Amino acid sequence: MNKDKKFSIGEFSEKTGIPIPTLHYYDEIGLLQPEKNPSSGHRTYYFQDIITLQKIISLKFLGYSLDKIANLLHESSFNIDLNESLSLHLNALVSEKEKIEQSMQAIKRVIKLVEKEGELDSTILFSLIYNMKVEHKHEEWMERHSLTDITEDLSMKSEEDKITLDKTFIQLSKEMKQLYGKPLDDSKVQEMVKNYLESIFSFLGDDLIQKLADTNVEELDIQELEYMTTSPFTEDEQKWFNQAIEFYMKQLEME
């Protein structure tokens, strides 16, 4: 390649694949400043500018900000400090990857739920999505309380298992809002509670239920976990539902 060859900004953009507005911006912030005609202001790029642009693209690929790139751009060599910086970027990318994968799984679950239900109450849907988002916080909470084995058991649940539980939650939410206010001993209310508890027990399995029963977690810590989640129910609806569950459990004890 002729290293003395000149390029207009349009030619340089076409050759490098970098949009003209981006080249303008790099010029404005002093990252890649071409030669300018004093009278016309037209920009002229040379072969060396291609090399500089390749360095910029390489550093962006590694995750560096433009400010950091400006500091690194003219370094003639790098030492162990670069590895430390790269390690920080790697950790950030790993974290971002985990968030992206979590979002992808949530999107897939929501798509399947909407396909199945046809129409979803927005409050219920947003509650589900938010709880999907904070699943990792639930895992962190359990790890802080030495419940790692429970976390591992839950992580083994398939996406289909989770989707089935989501569908149960949606159905419960619909029924609960329809039945709210009825007497606790109403047969439909008790049937709803029965189906809800059976679905939870089916999802968790006997071994995991026993592990949960054997845990010793302070009341305040349980409240912390509850604050991490959101509910589609009003405070009064939730209170009524809790009372319905208590009534159901008492009836079981009497049998």
Could you give the topology of this structure?
Blueprint: E1 7-8, H1 9-16, H2 20-28, E2 35-36, E3 43-45, H3 47-61, H4 66-72, H5 80-117, H6 122-133, H7 135-144, H8 148-155, H9 159-179, H10 187-204, H11 206-214, H12 219-227, H13 235-254
Antiparallel strand pairs: 1-3, 2-3
Can you walk through the features of this model?
- This protein is mostly helical.
- 72% of the residues lie in helices and 3% in strands.
- The protein has helices spanning 9-16, 20-28, 47-61, 66-72, 80-117, 122-133, 135-144, 148-155, 159-179, 187-204, 206-214, 219-227, 235-254; strands spanning 7-8, 35-36, 43-45.
- The protein has a 3-stranded antiparallel beta sheet.
- A hairpin with a 6-residue loop joins strand 2 and strand 3 (43-45).
- Helix 5 (80-117) packs across helix 9 and helix 9 packs antiparallel against helix 10 (187-204).
- It starts with 6 loop residues before the first strand and ends with a helix.
- The model has no long low-confidence stretch (mean pLDDT 82).
List key phrases describing it.
255 residues; mainly alpha; elongated
From the N-terminal CA to the C-terminal CA, the straight-line distance is 90 Å
Radius of gyration: 29 Å
The beta-strand count equals 3
Low-confidence stretches: none
Using the alpha-carbon principal axes, give the shape.
elongated
- Give the helix/strand class: mainly alpha
| Topology as a string of helices (H) and strands (E) | EHHEEHHHHHHHHHHH
Give the strand order of the largest sheet, numbering strands 1, 2, ... along the chain.
1-3-2
Total DSSP helices? 13
